[in-house]
Amino acid sequence: MGTCSACREPLVLQVNDGDEDEEPQVVPDDLEAPCGCHFHWQCLFDQASELVISLRCPSCGAELATSTSGPSAANPLLASSAGVAILTTYTNEGGIQEHYDILPEITEEAYLDANPEARPARAYHVMCSEGDVGGIVELLRDAERADGDEPRLSTLQLVRYQDPLGGSKSGLHLAVERRQTDVVWLLLWIASTLPAGVFPDPVRQAVETMGIQRPSIPSSDDIRALRDNRGRTAEAVAAQTGGRMAAMMDTGVLYPGPYE
Ligand SMILES: [Zn+2]
Ligand SMILES: [Zn+2]
User: Fold this and answer.
1) Are 57 and 33 spatial neighbours (Cβ–Cβ below 8 Å)?
2) How many angstroms is it from 59 CA to the middle of ligand 1?
3) I need a labelling partner for 52 at 20 to 30 A (CA). Which of 45, 102, 152, 179 fits?
């Protein structure tokens, strides 16, 4: 069993240590960089801010980035940023993943290190994609309650967050793209000017059961007007997604203007 080049501990992760009834279990946690150095996932990601700039191994200093094959590699003008990867071999509980490009996640981690207030917003986006209505409601309640000196987003900023690393999509874009109808209705409830009478009865009952107040949103803050970096509103994404999202769009509820 090798050890981590950063912390010198064995390349395993202890799980279920919170549960006193069970024996502590260890699972592999071995991220092998292209240079051959091994790290715990977290130990390498702790270095994300430096790594994303230097693209060098924090232990041996070797260059880690490789040009990826594909159309961009054939075009030297595009190869500089888009066609770069850090290809690792990652062994964890789930098995071995070879040629695993960690650069996107390293970039995201570096971004979050520099913008810690965006962390809840990233969590919110994952919940929008996965259809986790309960999680979103809880997160927004926490945002309302939170105090302290840490910089943080207001509830509305959180709901309207657009991910600079994810094509500037909003939570609504993601929910539409992943056909998460419940999340779409929830976001329309809390961040649009859509008249309450337009919401289907089960949706209204659900939000009332969860105790979600409907804030009054000026039309300038309507989440439906947000555009991703390709200029698309959530309505435009719904048209491309098709199926039940296109059907929802046909009723006009995603149109970012006065409902008719
Ligand atoms: Zn380590
Ligand atoms: Zn190395």
Assistant:
1) yes
2) 11
3) 152
